[in-house]
Request: fold
Amino acid sequence: MKDDPVYVTRPFLPPLEEFVPLLRQVWDSKVLTNGGPFHRQFEAALAAHLGVGQLALFANGTFSLVTALQALRIGGEVITTPYSFVATAHSLLWNGIRPVFVDVEPDTLNLDPARIEAAITPETTAILAVHCYGNPCRVRAIQEVADNYNLKVIYDAAHAFGVEDDGGSILRHGDLSILSFHATKVFTTCEGGAIVCPDEKIKQHIDHLKNFGFLNETTVVAVGINGKMNEMQAALGLLQLKYVDEALASRREIDARYRELLAGVPGIRCLERPPLRRSNYAYFPIMVEAGYPQDRDGLYRRLRDAGIFARRYFHPLISEMPMYRGLVSAGESNLPRATEAARRILCLPIYPGLAEEQVRRIARLVADGR
Ligand code: T4K
Reply:
């Protein structure tokens, strides 16, 4: 076991024998997609589980993002973070929207609300923020700026499944939030995603948008896309709900063990998690800082040579990628904190079933330094 590679994550999967009867139902009914019975059941069960009014399931998180921007008719410029997975900004370019990058806060690595106002122009229509690593943005401060300038707020909550603040699910904030159920996420349907909707009316519009704009057999009411989740994904999702609390509890233990084992290691800082009613322990990010015997890439290689595949989420910054780096807002001088974080960040393996012995081994390798 010691020599098996350890990846940054592994998907939690339910017992196969529990999934097979669901697949048999799909085979028997021959309903594979287009809002079948599993889709309807999973959509309702998931909304109830998350404590949100309604949501629309999607084939993946990226389609959810692209469609959320369409649903709110966002155009012009949108203020966003450079410190995320590239899909966040790509969803803007796919909609012909210009991203305007604003720096992050040093503690959460989320969009800094204090810097948004200075980036607003007459072209600005919305703020697209990310609850990075599942740690919530400063939602109240973001909403305040948005209200002052009449901007929409969309949260890329791809990392934030199940996260709750004092008022309940963090998915209730902003105009729309999107989720991802990719294989690397805390809750997976292989590929999958959702838009959390504040009311039935917008959900209906989004349901049209994800199905080519069809209202019924012959009427098309919008320029829609094919963003639908299929029946096998939905059946898996339904089954996953049974196990997700157990999976989060296992992540919580690993998170606590890393924090205990890495406390006091010079130059290693575990990213703080804000006090929340419920966290999801989606990632275990550490910062490799001054006082550590080597730089982040040195530690990354040391772990890799030992078969531990930690990941540098999110290096390089989106703003450094070829299709973004020409933007004025992409300059390093505009994004000093994000730039620094991208140089220092390393996400250690965390997933249900990662053996305690492996966690100890990884922590030992990190603590040893060289
Ligand atoms: N917004 C944000 C903030 C996001 O983080 C993401 C996705 C999105 C939007 C878009 O949502 P989706 O359209 O993807 O639903 C991964 C994921 O592909 C991506 O979904 C995710 N963010 C991003 C943070 O990470 P990679 O390139 O790191 O994945 P990969 O294939 O290298 O996988 C990492 C490790 O996970 C592997 O070493 C082993 C393990 N793994 C992976 C897969 C795919 C498995 O064990 N099984 C698997 O099937 O991007």
Notes: Residues 7-11, 60-62, 84-85, 87-88, 130, 156, 158-159, 180, 182-184, 193, 309, 311, 313 surround T4K (CB under 6 Å). The mean pLDDT is 97.
